[in-house]
Amino acid sequence: MDDGRIHVVTTTGIIRDLVEHVGGAHVEAHSLVPDGADPHSYEPTLRDIREVVYADAAFSNYAFLEQHSIITALDANLHEGVPNVALAEESASHGAELIQLVENAKLNTIWLGMRIHGDGTPYGASRSSEAHLVTHGVTGPGKAFAYLTGTFGEAKIALNSSDGFDASTGYQDDTATLPIGAHTHLSWVFTEPGIYTIDIAADVQPTRTDRPISVGEAELTFAVGVDPSTAGRPDAVVLKAGHADVTADLDAHAVTVRHDASGMGERQESYSAEDVIIEVPSRALSEVPADPRFRFLGEPGTQVYQLAQAVLGAHIHGEIDPHLWHDVANTMAYVQVIRDTLIGVDPSHASEYTANADAYLGELEALDAEVQAAVDTIPPERRHLVTTHDSFAYFAKAYGMDVAGFVTPNPAVEVSLADRRRLQQTIEQLEVPAVFLEPNIASRSKTLAEVAEQAGIAVCPIYSDAFDHTVTNYVDLMRFNATSLRDCLAGS
Fold it and tell me: What's the family (predicted)?
């Protein structure tokens, strides 16, 4: 029944809370991701789709915070003309400061992923479109594989040359699918030393009902356990360190390799995939694990050459850290975008939306000062933040803290021995008095609790992406985090 209110759909509970503060009595807001759920992995339901269909406005965070199917649900089901606002992008016009998402794997081999570069406008693509990197064939002395280690250790295969390449299915078993503008991590495995070539084609699919449109094709060369000079290509650029991505370049209409030698996101060079050789050195030798989920690589204990996936867990993202709301000033920019959007949808209540926004902005300004005051009570030498989830860079920059480390590269994956050693060293060298876990993923971080117990330090709660029964709104989330940090880091 139409009750006269504006019906707004948001992706997360945090955005829903902001909309409710600005909209007041004239807005009904529904978040697709339930409180307590992870926006990075939540899949929308039929009920969610119904909410989208009847929405008068939609707000997402975007910057690849949400699972891509959530964004697709918005873009495919909102009626024409309904505002579909990506707050992380639009908030910059109101002064939000964006932080580049920097990843430093510190590996002793190159880190090689896959990427979709460009917005796809010449192909009629949008943010809900998909692009594909498809392997048509492999030559070399052994077998080649590329796979993504998922959140709970399962392997999602992007390339498996051991079972051939089936053109009749569109090579669907040897295809990596990514949203426009995203990149993903991969492990690459080769069973024998020598020179390999991999034939890769790229295409873009504007909508699920469209036929894929070709972007380009290329032959990518790998030197596995041998000197790259044996490939007989003296003019090729040899890539042996840093971060590189096999790229469907929608602007250049070609398959390229984008390379950042530092691994820190400082500078990217783009090469034609035909002009490079990827070096897989002898030190990349590894053994097939006993886990039956990796049996496709060979028998357990078999030696293979592996360019390891630098960050474990299904991890697709863009170039900007999406967690802007951990800086209250950025959230104030979100509020102003929401205010302007609601006024555009319902101008008859513009004065009330403006008044509601002004009152809330005043509350947020006081909250910003309160958070800073809490952090200021922590001695500078103790302002080191160790968490499970890479989402507190904005908080650290805004309030003068140091993100000292993460429990694992992805919070849903068990800690490796190397991760555990690094964590222990960080705690010892910085004399960290506490580490911080998000309540909704604490059950998956037993190892961190063990390390903390051995070090005699506290394990304290912190909230990132979602509310629960304890923290039910944004102001409470920020206030809880500030209090937890103060109590756990400032004390003796």
Answer: Belongs to the bacterial solute-binding protein 9 family.
Length of the chain: 492
Instruction: Retrieve residue 388's tokens.
Output: 């499970």
Q: Are 334 and 63 in contact (CB under 8 A)?
A: no
390: left (phi over 0), alpha (psi -120 to 50) or beta: beta
Can you read off the two tokens belonging to residue 258? 């984008």
Residue 450: C-alpha distances to residues 189, 417, 446 (Å): 33, 13, 6
How far is the CA of 129 from the CAs of 72, 124, 205, 208, 422, in angstroms?
Answer: 8, 9, 6, 8, 39
Which residue is associated with the tokens 């594909």?
132
Total-model pTM: 0.75
How is residue 414 annotated by DSSP? Answer: P
**For the domain 6-99+322-362, what is the CATH superfamily, name and number?**
Nitrogenase molybdenum iron protein domain (3.40.50.1980)
Q: How far is CA 398 from the centre of its chain?
A: 21
Decide yes or no: CATH 3.40.50.1980 for domain 377-489.
yes
Distance CA 18, CA 31 (A): 11
Fold match between domain 6-99+322-362 and domain 377-489 = yes
| Inter-residue contact 113 to 311 (CB < 8 Å) | no
Residues 97 and 40: their CA atoms lie apart, in Å, by 22
The pLDDT tens digits of the residues spanning 254-290 come to 999 999 887 655 567 999 999 999 999 988 888 998 8
The domain spans of the chain are 6-99+322-362, 111-317, 377-489
pLDDT in tens, 308-322: 886 544 455 667 889
